[in-house]
Write a structure and sequence with these properties.
The radius of gyration is 18 Å and the shape is globular. Strand 3, helix 2 and strand 4 form a beta-alpha-beta unit. With 281 residues, the chain is of the alpha/beta class. Strands 1-3-4-5-6-7-8-11 form an eight-stranded parallel β-barrel. It has a two-stranded antiparallel sheet with strand order 9-10. Bound molecules: magnesium ion. Magnesium ion binds next to loops.
Length: 281
């Protein structure tokens, strides 16, 4: 794949990102796919979907896990509902993650992305140990399918994420770096954080945000179009170059309630990224 191919976060029948047709209309050649609903994850549907992607000339670079019951309504609700943190659903979600991994394999894709949830801060706690064990189990299953796990950034500071990666002790665990999430969750400066975790970065989201006027870490910041927030798009791409990242640049814009505006702002992000690429490459 060409260096820094522009992509978009998309879905086919459920979940985050834009509809696949939007990617096609915008001439985008790679997507990260939010996992399709359970009923769609069959070998037959994987084949149909692959045929459609071939028609569109689109390649899937990563499939993102998503589970029923997850909500990003507030930072507190995110902490309570997302990923493998809630103990009551941990085992059933691990089982579902294995099914998603199989579906991803049928698509011929070697990366699974995940918001695993807020990693507990107390490393001696049972909750922390249970998270490490859960992610080890997930990594081992993905490995058997020839896949890597890309952890979505945002809920932890860079240092905590590095410690967690080192505690998991698996060679197929990496990072999907989302600079806006660090701002939204109040978890530190995105550029400084990117330099710290650089060697683990295998995929990225081009997303932007402004920090909260309330309490960082308690109140959400605000997601804005790429290039219009506090990320500093040009410095973000320059830093990606500096750390040697040459994978796809996947635009993420989560305003599903306004599809026309979403499409327009993705087009603007595309244009911005292409102009920065020309300038700095
Ligand atoms: Mg993201």
């Amino acid at each position: 794949m060409e260096k820094w191919t522009v992509g978009v976060f998309a879905s086919i029948d459920a979940g985050l990102g834009v509809n696949l047709d939007v990617a096609r209309d915008l001439g985008i050649k790679t997507i990260q796919l939010h996992t399709p609903s359970k009923k769609s994850r069959t070998p037959e549907n994987a084949k149909l979907f692959l045929d459609k992607l071939n028609d569109y000339g689109i390649e899937v670079t990563c499939v993102f896990l998503g589970f029923e019951g997850e909500s990003y309504a507030s930072i507190q609700i995110t902490a309570e509902t997302v990923g493998f943190v809630p103990a009551a659903t941990r085992q059933s979600r691990l089982a579902e993650a294995r099914e998603i991994s199989d579906f991803t394999k049928w698509l011929g894709v070697q990366a699974i992305g995940s918001h695993i949830g807020f990693v507990p801060h107390d490393k001696e706690s049972e909750d922390y140990k249970a998270m490490v064990a859960a992610i080890q189990e997930l990594c081992d299953y993905l490995k058997s399918n020839g896949q890597n796990l890309h952890l979505e950034t945002g809920q932890e500071k860079a240092e905590a994420l590095l410690e967690f990666l080192s505690d998991v002790q698996r060679d197929n665990i990496f990072i999907n770096f989302d600079p806006a999430n660090l701002i939204l969750y109040g978890m530190g400066d995105p550029i400084g954080s990117l330099k710290k975790v650089g060697k683990y970065v295998r995929s990225v989201h081009c997303k932007d945000a402004k920090s909260t006027s309330g309490t960082p870490g308690v109140d959400w910041g605000c997601e804005v179009p790429f290039g219009q927030g506090e990320v500093n798009a040009e410095l973000f791409l320059k830093t990606l170059k500096e750390i040697g990242f040459d994978g796809p640049l996947t635009i993420e814009r989560e305003i599903p309630e306004e599809p026309e505006r979403q499409k327009k702002e993705i087009q603007q992000a595309l244009d911005l990224i292409e102009s920065i690429k020309t300038k700095i490459s």
